[in-house]
Amino acid sequence: MSNMFAPQAENTIAPQVQVGSITVPDYTISPSGFLDHILAFFIGLVIGFGVLFVFYQLIILSVIGGAAFGVVNIFFAASKSTVKRKERLRTQFFDLLEAMSVAMRSGSPPLKALQSAKEDLSLIYPADSDIIVETSIIIGRFNNAIPLSVIFDDFAKRSGIEDIASFASVYATIEGKSSRADEIIRETQQIISDKMEIEMEIDTLMTAAKSEVNAMLVMPLIILAVIGFAGSGFMEVLYQPGVGRIVATGGFIVLIISFILARIFSNIKL
User: Is 8 left (phi over 0), alpha (psi -120 to 50) or beta?
Assistant: First the structure.
């Protein structure tokens, strides 16, 4: 079985939800813990303090604004961790479909294909990885007479991943009605593979542009900081009440708007 993407270690336990009599992971909820929130807060505090101090050189304002940005950064970091976990699970699900397709082409029924896929995936992913845990849940629930279509549908809802939802919908349509299950699984896996390759190409093309945008956002701050602290009073007018504060506030607003627009335009989704 080929693996397009190298597996990544998973050190965070996904939040749990109750499904029937068992507890299963919910990947639509951030896996960030208390320490992650504290770290995100302090990172946001430092960045917010630095930016505000460059524009205003007021310690109290910079601390309050930095603390506010620290709180906001907690939510940004939590959302980012959720996205990363879902991307990793999506890649692992691709490997699961590939392993199942190979097993079913050799004549194995769905349960045997799942068990074989789990054994194959155990060679490249740790025992506590999301896909190993999910495969164990799927096999366990299937042994309890729950149809695979229901199990995959529940997995799709908990994952919040479009590709898994599409596969669950297709499988529910053909379950017990078609002998082409292995072909459909293989076709679904190929579609996911194509989407991943396109996304990787787009991300590669966007990397340089993102670096340029980040440099353009940081350079004004560096220039202001250097001139403000080493310019022998050249920028003092900017920090005086009246027109100076208005100009500084205008520059700060433009920087924030530029940052938001840069993130929106660089976040391309298929």
Answer: beta
Residue 42's pLDDT is what? 96
- Cα 178 to Cα 39, 173, 192, 242, 262: the distances in Å are 51, 9, 22, 76, 48
Averaged pLDDT in 10-residue chunks for the chain of 270 residues: 41 52 77 91 94 89 94 93 90 88 81 89 90 91 87 90 87 72 75 80 78 82 79 70 84 87 72
Q: Give the per-residue pLDDT at 179.
A: 64
Cβ count within 10 A of residue 182 = 19
Q: What is the per-residue DSSP string for the chain?
A: ---SS------SPPPEEEETTEEEE-TTS----HHHHHHHHHHHHHHHHHHHHHHH--HHHHHHHHHHHHHHHHHHHHHHHHHHHHHHHHHHHHHHHHHHHHHHHTT--HHHHHHHHHHHHTTTS-TTSHHHHHHHHHHHHHHTT--HHHHHHHHHHHHT-HHHHHHHHHHHHHTTT-S-HHHHHHHHHHHHHHHHHHHHHHHHHHHHHHHHHHHHHHHHHHHHHHHHHHSTTTTGGGGSTTHHHHHHHHHHHHHHHHHHHHHHHH----
Q: Where are the domains of the chain?
A: 20-266
Tell me the β-bridge partners of 18: 23
pTM: 0.75
